[in-house]
Amino acid sequence: MSEVMEHWLDKRVALSPDALAIETPEGEQWTFFRLQQEAKLFAKKLANVACKQKHIGILSGNSVEMVVAFLACTYIQAPVVFLNTRLTEKEIEKQCQAADVDLLLTSTYYRSKAKQLSTTSYTFNQIRELETMSISLPSSIKMEGLCSMMFTSGTTGTAKAVMHRYKNHWASAVASALNLGLLSTDKWLACLPLFHIGGLSIILKGIIYGMPVYLLERFDEQIVHQAIIDKGVSIVSVVSVTCMRLLQLLGKQRYPKNFRCMLLGGGPAPQPLLEKARALDVPIVQTFGMTETSSQIATLNEHDALRKIGSAGHALFSASLEIRKNGKQAAVNEIGEIVVRGPMVTDGYYKREEANLASFQEGWFLTGDLGYQDEEGFLYVVDRRSDLIISGGENIYPAEIEDCLLSMPTIAEAGVVGIPDPVWGEVPVAFVVKRDGALTQDDIVKHCRSRLARFKIPKQIFFTDVLPRNATNKLQRHQLKKWIEERNG
C-alpha cells in the first residue's frame, strides 16, 4: 500500500494560514490561505476541460498564476509537464508528444506560441472564466503518484522526460533543510525559471517549510540585489553568470547579516568567481544536482564553504554518492563518473526504457558527470559531461545542434563543441563540411533560428574540409576544441 500524506498546501494552511507564502517585487503578497483558495478554485474550473491522470503541460514564465495553475493540477491529480518557454514551437511540439500532453495551460504572453501547437491550449485567464464545477477535491497525496515531468536531453540530443513523483520532491525538500538548516526568518528568492527543477523546488520547499518565497519573473541583478539588502531575503539560488553580476553590483557594499546563502548550481564554478565572493564576504554554497535528482543531491554546507572552496560538498543526508572508474569505486582524488542514489532520485524517464536501462543500475543513477572525492569525501565536479555545454545555466547537447545542421542539404558533416565565454560560461560553436553548392554563415544561422532556441544557435561557425574521427568513425570533439585553441594561439 503506497504512502499517503495530507495535501501539502492543505497541511501548511492548517499550520500557518496567515503566513506569507509568495511575495513579488511588484508588491503582491500571498498568504498560504489565499494560495490554497485560489488553487482550489482554479482546480474546480480546470476540471471542465481536464481530468485525473491526464498530462497537463504548462508553458509560462515565472508568475503567481503559474504557481496557482500547478497547484491546481495537484488537486485534480493531473501530472504537470513543464515546458521551456525559450524553445521553438517545433521543439515544444516534440516534447508534448513525447510526454503525452493532453492539454496545455499557458500565460497570455505565450498564447501565440501555444496556438502553433497541435495540443489544445487554454490561457490561465480562459480557465478562470469557466464555470466552477461542484466537485470534491482530494485532501491527500499519494507519494508514489506522478507529480511532474521536466525534460533533459541525452547525449543523442533526444529529449527525455524525467518523472518526478511526490516522494522525490518531498525527499529533496527534507534533505535540503537537513543540509542548509532552516530559520524562522528565512526567505528564499526564486529567479530561476519555474520550468527548471531548481525553480520549482523552491516553490515546493516554501510550502513544506512554511517559508516565504520572493518570486521574480526573471533574473534582474538590481532587483535581486535590492531584495537581499532590504527585503529580508536570506537565500538566493544562482548560476555562475548571475552570481558574477551580483558580485560586480555589490562593489564596496556588504550584504546584511541575515543573508546566509547564495546557493550556486548549474555547473562547476570558475575559481575567480569563488575567490571574488570570498573577498566580498559573500557566502557561496556550491551544489551539485540535476533534473534527475529533483534539484540538489550534494551541497557544501556553510561551515565548510571557505575551507573547501570549489567543492560541491557531501551527498545530502538521505542520499549516497560514489565515484566509479571502469566499474569500480575510484580511489581518493581519482576522477571518475559520479553515481548517486537516494529517495530524491527519479525512478526513470517517461517511456524511455532503453535510456532507463543505460542510466540505472542496481539502484544507482549513473550521472555521466565527472568528478572526484578528496580525503574527507568532499565532491569536486570536474565536468558536467564530456560533451555537454552549459550556457547561462542551460544545458546544451551538441548532438541536437548537429542534427539541425545536418538537416541542411548543403552540409555534409557537422561537429559542435562549447568554448569558454566570459558572460555565459560557455557558448556553442560549430564546424561544418560543405557539400557542393554555396553556403554562408548567414544561411546556417537563419536555418538554426527556425528550429532551435536562441541559446543553442552556434556563436561561431568554422568551415573545414574534414572533421576529426577515430577508427570507428566517431567524431572526436576534443580535437575540435584543440583546433579552436590553435586558432586562438
TrEMBL record:
Transmembrane domains' residue ranges: none
Enzyme Commission (EC) number: 6.2.1.26
Entry keyword annotation includes Ligase: yes
Family annotation (InterPro entries): AMP-bd_C (IPR025110), AMP-bd_C_sf (IPR045851), AMP-binding_CS (IPR020845), AMP-dep_synth/lig_dom (IPR000873), ANL_N_sf (IPR042099), MenE (IPR010192)
Gene3D superfamilies: 3.30.300.30, N-terminal domain of ligase-like
Domain AMP-dependent synthetase/ligase: start-end pairs: 10-350
Catalytic function, reaction form: 2-succinylbenzoate + ATP + CoA = 2-succinylbenzoyl-CoA + AMP + diphosphate
Entry's Gene Ontology BP terms: fatty acid metabolic process; menaquinone biosynthetic process
PROSITE patterns, per database record: AMP_BINDING
Domain of life: Bacteria
SUPFAM superfamilies documented for this protein: Acetyl-CoA synthetase-like (SSF56801)
UniProt similarity note: Belongs to the ATP-dependent AMP-binding enzyme family. MenE subfamily.
Matches recorded under PANTHER family: ACYL-COA SYNTHETASE (PTHR43201), MEDIUM-CHAIN ACYL-COA LIGASE ACSF2, MITOCHONDRIAL (PTHR43201:SF5)
Known function: Converts 2-succinylbenzoate (OSB) to 2-succinylbenzoyl-CoA (OSB-CoA).
Protein name as catalogued: 2-succinylbenzoate--CoA ligase
Organism phylogeny: Bacteria, Bacillati, Bacillota, Bacilli, Bacillales
